[in-house]
Amino acid sequence: MSGNADALKKAAAEAAMQYIEDGTVVGVGTGSTVNFFIDALAERKHDIEGAVSSSEASTERLKSHGIEVLELNSVVEVPIYVDGADEITEHGQMIKGGGGALTREKIIAAVARKFVCVADESKMVGRLGQFPVPVEVIPMARSYVAREIVKLGGDPVWRQGFTTDNGNWILDVHNFDIMEPMKLEAELNNIVGVVTNGLFAQRGADIALIAREDGVQTLK
Ligand code: 5RP
């Protein structure tokens, strides 16, 4: 990753700080862009109630900064969720899960009132699908789910050697022709053995902060 790409990620992540309100719980995603957000959040740690985290990795980083990490089950409201994306359209639909944290990310996104996506311009696409769609599966269902995915037109590849924070496995699905992201998201979720999939179309981002060379663009 070049220093310039990191600078763009940092700029997008820091722009999300304007949406953080004192006394509230902050939903925190996963990934290299979110890591910059966590670092920035550390400076506001005494102002917020705490964070809910989408991965063990983010939890560790939050705690290393002394930011309180709360159990999602003990929290009633998550006004804001900040996370990155592997691909995002101008309508806020995304592919996520490159880091394998898609299930917990989707859960917090579902709870959150507002989803703020932070990304550098390389993540913006006209149509989703260049990046393989991650699908989290119960391990014993891996082969069955892969066969069902082939029927849907995708080419699943097992992310070997990787286990999710939930103890499951990931199939990265290449070559999907994603004309209707919401429909495909539902079809994938309908396969028995699928925990969740990395299409965030039904619940996309409400705000996207896209860092470009000439500044951070806000898409709503
Ligand atoms: C992790 C994710 C990340 O948000 C996505 O992979 C983007 O990561 P990065 O900011 O490192 O490019 O969905 O599961």
UniProtKB/TrEMBL annotation:
It catalyses: aldehydo-D-ribose 5-phosphate = D-ribulose 5-phosphate. The active site is at E105. It is an enzyme of class 5 (isomerase). Substrate binds at T30, G31, S32, T33, D83, G84, A85, D86, K96, G97, G98, G99, K123. Pathway: Carbohydrate degradation; pentose phosphate pathway; D-ribose 5-phosphate from D-ribulose 5-phosphate (non-oxidative stage): step 1/1. SUPFAM superfamilies: D-ribose-5-phosphate isomerase (RpiA), lid domain, NagB/RpiA/CoA transferase-like. One of its GO terms (biological process) is D-ribose metabolic process. Gene3D superfamilies: 3.30.70.260, 3.40.50.1360. Its EC number is 5.3.1.6. Pfam families: Rib_5-P_isom_A. Keywords: Isomerase. GO terms for molecular function: ribose-5-phosphate isomerase activity. InterPro entries: NagB/RpiA_transferase-like, Ribose5P_isomerase_typA_subgr, Ribose5P_isomerase_type_A. One of its GO terms (cellular component) is cytosol. Belongs to the ribose 5-phosphate isomerase family. HAMAP family: Rib_5P_isom_A. Homodimer. Catalyzes the reversible conversion of ribose-5-phosphate to ribulose 5-phosphate. This is Ribose-5-phosphate isomerase A. The gene is rpiA.
